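README, section 4: Worked example with a bound small molecule

Sections 1 through 3 covered apo chains. Here we extend the same pipeline to holo records, where the ligand is supplied as SMILES alongside the sequence. The molecule in this example is magnesium ion. Nothing else about the input changes; the structure line simply encodes the ligand pose together with the chain.
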Amino acid sequence: MNEPTEKQVHDQSLLGIYDHPTDVTAGQWSVSRSDRPHMYRIAHRRSSGEMHIDTVVDLDNLESKLQKWRREGFVRHETDMPKKEPAHRATFMKDLRASTPSDRATAPLSAGTAIVGGVPMPLGASGPLVPPVNPAYLFAARSENVLFDILENRRIMLIGHTGTGKTSLIEQVAAHTNQGVLRSNMNGQTTVGDFVGFWTVKGGETIWVDGVLPTAMREGLWLIVDEVDFAEPAILAVLTAVLEPGGRLLLKEKGNEIVAPHPSFRLFATANAVGSMGQYRHLYQGANLMNEAFLDRWRVYHIDYLSREDEARVLERTFSGRISPEMAQTLASIAAECREAFIREDLASAFSTRRLLDWTELMLRTGNPETAAGPTIYSKISAEDAALVRSIIQHHIALDD
Ligand SMILES: Nc1ncnc2c1ncn2[C@@H]1O[C@H](COP(=O)(O)OP(=O)(O)OP(=O)(O)O)[C@@H](O)[C@H]1O
Ligand SMILES: [Mg+2]
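The generated complex, written as structure tokens:
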């Protein structure tokens, strides 16, 4: 490797530049760290650019020089001041607002449309694969852009910790729009055959069986590829082919048959440790890194836990009439505090909405938050973590003896 030039070293250690605001002939002083400990290098450059003083001084000497320059009218030039604004910096946001529709959600409602989370969505073809509506489901503000992306036929990847609501968001949109859904989990035995299709012998005849992808594409179903960060490379290669809207699937195994997507077909993926969630990969062992070219073909949404208020509302709606608003607030606060402890790395496991709902359900049956926390929380985490969660619970709930 080349040694850095003297100028580069000088620039790296630059502490300040002093110039005269009115006297252009005064030139410029610069102060930088010297390579000798506790010593500073001061240099003066004439307005012509010529460097004629370049010397090393100690701190006392530097301070007296700084006072002298100040007396002479030199001022510190803000080296970290933003550079001159690019010409259109100020008008960009105004121009953007002028081109952004402000009333997308208020388009006239046609017969085959349902309002989901405030967004008009076309109804699907119904059928046995439509997920059941969860009456307690709350379309939080985080859903809106995902809904518009579904309308625009974008490929959508939802990333986030386990149990934040990735799968249920897609399923509940489908449930409210009578749209059939297929799910395929990549963290298991899903093979390319399951995904794409395979030949088999039935009644003495060799027949082709479509996998989940061509089935969804032909029948206009929504396909959720769960835990896509665990998918084997051959499946990722197949997926990539259909990531462009209108992308066709080539069934090589079936004599290069081409499967064109039905207009209602949509493709979703969920993952725990992809992209901005990569910092948590150690929690999701075995998850693969997804390359940028693959990620760039999706809209990737980070689905975080519901806010404390939204989670309290979900609790109230889920256990309607069985828990008071105050109880719901308390439980949501416990979950939120456990998550804060997780972010601080005081807790090794996150506290999912799924865990909170399950704990609450068992608590309502047993009448005892501590007993209910056994199978729903404590048994799933280390003794140390359980002790911390217990202390958070006890901070919020005065448990009976
Ligand atoms: N907005 C919401 N309203 C009501 N319930 C919700 C909401 N979001 C999540 N839940 C509930 O939280 C639980 C977990 O949600 P979900 O299965 O969608 O999580 P996930 O992010 O897909 O988890 P994983 O990564 O483990 O697959 C479900 O029981 C779901 O109903
Ligand atoms: Mg899921």
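What to look for in the output: Residues 134, 136-138, 140, 160, 162-168, 270, 272, 306, 314, 353-354, 357 surround adenosine-5'-triphosphate (ligand 1) (CB under 6 Å). The domain at 113-302 is CATH 3.40.50.300 (Rossmann fold).

Section 5 describes how to batch many such records.
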